[in-house]
Amino acid sequence: MDTLILLTLLVVVFALAFDFINGFHDTANAIATSVSTRALPPKTAVIMAAIMNFVGAITFTGVAKAITKDIVDPFALQNGTLVILAALIAAIAWNLITWYFGIPSSSSHAIIGSIAGAAIAAAGFGILNYEGFIKILQALLLSPFIAIAVGFLMMSLFKVIFKGFNLYKTNKGFRTVQIGTAALQAFTHGTNDAQKAMGIITMALIAAGMQSDDEVQEWVRFACALAMGLGTSIGGYKIIKTVGGKIMKIRPVNGVAADLSSASIIFGATLIHLPVSTTHVISSAIMGVGAAQRVKGVKWGVARKIVLTWIITLPISATLAGLIYLLLNLFV
Known about the structure:
The chain is mostly helical. It has one domain (2-331).
């Protein structure tokens, strides 16, 4: 029992650490366009994103419940707390590696792949809740393509609406609007991303026999929202450079189009209780906006590198989590 309590405490600590790292790792996604167009200075943008992330994180719990029960059944998982601890260590390691190299990788892919990999290492492929797991994978895989399409359509619409407007005045107006769209972006980021840590802690509490349903406790909601907000306040300036400048040259009108496109998709996913990668959605929306502006203006080489990271994150994090579980299992 002492070991079980200790493992559960470690899961809570590592889940909050994951949320904290997720905050500074993904801050760039919410504010990259507003910083790159100079609508907001970096420090102001980061503080605003931290506040809006916290507000968004504490408002919803549907995605947390999906993480709790849709990947594996926490009530049927043997050594559940050890499985979740291994998954968190793997996801944190991958997040830190990609952050160090300035690659906008997906925290969502990392944690979902890690949970699946650690659970398979512990109990075989039969432990996966295939219906729920496939639904989550579909959301993760389809959302970037939807974001490209919505970004393309949004920018095409803006081009028609503002065709005869003075370019200088239009950019100045959109730069002001970007303050609002960046805040909206950060809020929607919080509604989806922070809930993943909430779901993981709830999953661990169930596996440890300390909770009998999938309701997210108030202290879990507050702790995860706070960790996400504090992490966001640190910021991820390396990734801001990649998302905000290396995919395409962003003007204020492009930033507003990208922000509105990605925020609508992320919030839509939150409302139907599906986790999506905010990194994927935002980067893809920027690509769609860029393609509508000028296909050759998108730096597709950088985009290909980002897409490659998206593809490899799930299998790498799953394999890493499986190996970490087997290693931990030798000692615990």
